[in-house]
Amino acid sequence: MNHLLENLNPEQLAAVTLPPQHALILAGAGSGKTRVLTTRIAWLISTRQVTPQGILAVTFTNKAAKEMLARLSALLPINTRGMWIGTFHGLCNRLLRAHYRDAGLPQLFQILDIADQQAAIKRLLKALNVDDEKFPPRDLQHFINAQKEQGLRSAAVEAWDDHTRRRVELYAAYEQQCQREGVVDFAELLLRCYELLERNEPLRRHYQERFRHILVDEFQDTNILQYRWLKLLAGHAERGRAAGPSQGAAALSMEAASAAEPPSPPPLGRGMGGGCMECACMFAVGDDDQSIYGFRGAEIGNMRDFEREFQVDNIIRLEQNYRSHGNILDAANAIIKNNEKRLGKNLWTDAGSGEPIRVFEAMSDGEEARWIVEEVRALSRDGHARREIALLYRSNAQSRILEHSLFSAGIPYRVYGGLRFFERQEIKHALAYLRLIANSDDDTAFARVVNFPARGIGARSIEALQDAARAAGSSLFAAIPQVPGKAGASLAAFAALIESMRPALDLPLPELVDHVVELSGLRLHYLNEKEGQERLANLDELLNAATSFVAEEGREVMEPEEAESTGEPTGELSADLAAFLTHAALEAGEHQAGEGDDALQLMTVHSAKGLEFNVVFMSGLEEGLFPHENSVQEAKGLEEERRLMYVAVTRARQRLYLSFAQTRMLHGQTRYSLPSRFIDEIPGELLKWLTPKAKKGGYAYEVADAFTPSPRSRVSSGGGLRVGQNVAHARFGQGVIVNAEGSGSDARVQVNFGPAGMKWLALSVAKLEAL
Ligand code: ATP
Ligand code: MG
User: Fold this and answer.
1) Could you tell me which CATH number the domain at 422-528 has?
2) What positions does the entry give for ATP binding (predicted)?
């Protein structure tokens, strides 16, 4: 057992070997929180305080869960398969699969990913004749998810105005539609699981007695509902929030009022602060400085509430960072110091200062991407493995140009998130057929493929079908016999096609997939399509994915024990299909085909959380992009962006690159930007500029600065104007040129208009008067 505890510092050791009690590990990036959590699981098991089945551990990504399981297998001679270690979504899905009937779901319920959900909402709005300008589907989607994440069903949402009232009605209609179709969205997985446990006492007791230790990584990013779910599973009395009427408290009390159960007993208060004799021990690790999901309803207040409600008197702080070299850590500390609302901690390392942080300013996003390619090549020549190099960006839209350059240069890369394998058109089509043969009431899948490949079922026929379905209160598929005439005949032929595929459910999963791709006509369709080669290759890849899925994790979702507890026969083969479809919806972005390859890692900063790389490129460090323009209006938003930057910087072990571009094409528009303020927040002595140092701040209107001719102006004159010259503009007033580039009709200048801000203006368009 001792080898488990080797290589832990005293604080880490204390955390790993805490007696059974609730604990909060509050510590900065790279201080070993995840390592402590994993080691504690191993220690608890190896000292026989708990069996592997008695552990429930929540990780932030599936990738993290896999790593945790791999580490556990390395530490202990146990079979980790079947252990309850996963994401909130993954664990809830597993519970719902095991108890689908109690949860009011069909056995093969399907999961709607974000795009499916949006499509479902669009379909709903259309069916109800709702003006989608007044109620944009995206807004409604956001509204619905936000309610669910607070634990609110449509019936519990209070609407204060007509618009909200209508949105709540639409939320209710959406709930009905999903129920009818037997589909659940991501937020529903959690809410449904929470309700299942809350209302079903025997089931709740079963799991409460089973899970003796609950461990949660990245606790700072849990939302209200997730925290309540944890409390419920821990068997901890729900007592609302004494701290005052926050939104969360409102949600809690409302929910409590409508709950089928009588109010829970008073606090544990067994006079042994933080003890967990009758409930599970909660072990939460987190870092308030890395809370980056506030925009999606995560509640940093959960940390405070946890401390109070579980009477945690063990808050362990870890301050030594084992990940990054000193300069990187100093930069991270300097950045985060600008935030006001912090629990406060500082990280140190004995790893030495290491290399300076490299900063690169590009003229354009294209130049930035080309520079990254060159730098990556040089790193490879120096012996750096590509999988140890991460390319981070603030938003997914930025990846396109980076991908383009990497692709042209023949550098293998893998994108996490973004348009993922399972989100590609042809894959979604194939999955929709599979979903439909598993559950013909799945209208989302139906709508996707009823006329793909084209079989002459036009918009009119679909409308007639929708009317019939609405009148009968049935699914689209079930309403087919009601549609008369030619339309009815084409639809009936489609129904027959689906029925003809159903016997294939008895085949092993890979054969089933192959069969469906063939019979549906998808393969033929792409064979005949001019650019169909890649899509065909992807369909083949789907087959491979199904094959390796069965080999690696088939039926993991339905453990015999859980199946028994429901007393239901599970139907092995359909369970394979269900598990595979779930895998496609939930795990898609995190491991794609050929994961073992040595590929550069591309991802947003959000998805980089918890990970580490030898080399990190943080690209697109521009005002408006990072910090994001939607965030800078209020301190709260800006502080979240800064925490995101802190996460980005602290991913790097040895080398960190920061880069920005003066111009960038985003969403079809060229943007002219200034360097991110976050670069300025890093002490100059930690930085090494690879290009001449950028001029200081455009966001602070430093007019004095503006009179110094810019060292990086790339043209000496633009249309007779020069850097430093005072100018006037009809709309922005008087200003001074601080920068210029391009020539002829491409010439543009950057002007500091003082109160009106800093602007890039094309001289061919803007009328500037020299003063
Ligand atoms: P984050 O906040 O980014 O999630 P973390 O606090 O979870 O970070 P870990 O990922 O657990 O940190 O650890 C960071 C790195 O430091 C890992 O590579 C880990 O193996 C290593 N590490 C942690 N503790 C020690 C230690 N005592 N000795 C040597 N290496 C350690
Ligand atoms: Mg971690």
Assistant:
1) 1.10.486.10
2) 27-34
Q: Is the C-beta atom of 547 inside 6 A of ligand 1?
A: no
Residue 241 has pLDDT above 60, yes or no: no
Cα separation of 43 and 347, whole Å? Answer: 26
> Does 286 sit in the ligand 1 pocket, CB within 6 Å?
no
Respond yes or no: is residue 33 known to be catalytic: yes
**What's the confidence (pLDDT) of residue 425?**
80
Burial class (CB in 10 A: 0-12, 13-18, 19+), 167: buried
* Longest pairwise C-alpha distance within the chain: 86
Distance of CA 37 to the CA centre of its chain: 22
pLDDT digits (tens, 9 = 90+) for 698-732: 332 222 232 233 333 333 333 456 666 778 888 88
Q: How confident is the model at residue 574 (pLDDT cuts 50, 70, 90)?
A: low
pLDDT per residue as tens digits for the range 258-317: 333 333 333 333 334 566 767 899 999 999 999 988 877 777 888 889 999 999 987 899
Residue with tokens 């940093």: 300
Tell me whether the CATH fold assigned to 3-100+198-238+278-318 matches the one assigned to 357-420+592-689: yes
148 given a catalytic annotation: no
Verify whether ligand 1 is closer than 6 Å to residue 29 (CB atom): yes
What would be the CATH architecture of the domain defined by 110-181? Orthogonal Bundle (1.10)
* Nearest-10 Cα torsion for 755, 757, 763, 764: -100
Whether 239 shows a pLDDT value over 90: the answer reads: no
Pocket test for ligand 1, best of 11, 61, 323, 324 (most atoms within 8 A of CB): 323
Q: Classify domain 3-100+198-238+278-318 at the CATH topology level.
A: Rossmann fold (3.40.50)
Catalytic residue at 34?
A: yes
Nearest CA to 335 out of 683, 51, 573 is that of: 683
Ligand 1 pocket test, candidate residues 35, 60, 215, 654, most atoms within 8 A of CB: 35
Q: Which of 35, 94, 448, 651 is the catalytic position?
A: 651
Whether 664 lines ligand 1, by a CB cut-off of 6 Å, is no
Annotated catalytic residue 217: yes
Kindly list the domain boundaries of the chain, sorted by start residue.
3-100+198-238+278-318, 110-181, 357-420+592-689, 422-528, 725-770
- pTM greater than 0.90: no
ipTM value for the complex:
0.99
DSSP H helical segments within 605-742, as ranges? 635-649, 677-680, 703-706
Cβ–Cβ < 8 Å for 84, 55: yes
**Tokens at 669, concatenated:** 């528009």
Architecture of the domain defined by 357-420+592-689: 3-Layer(aba) Sandwich (3.40)
Task: Name the residues around ion ligand 2, CB cutoff 5 A.
Answer: 33-34, 610
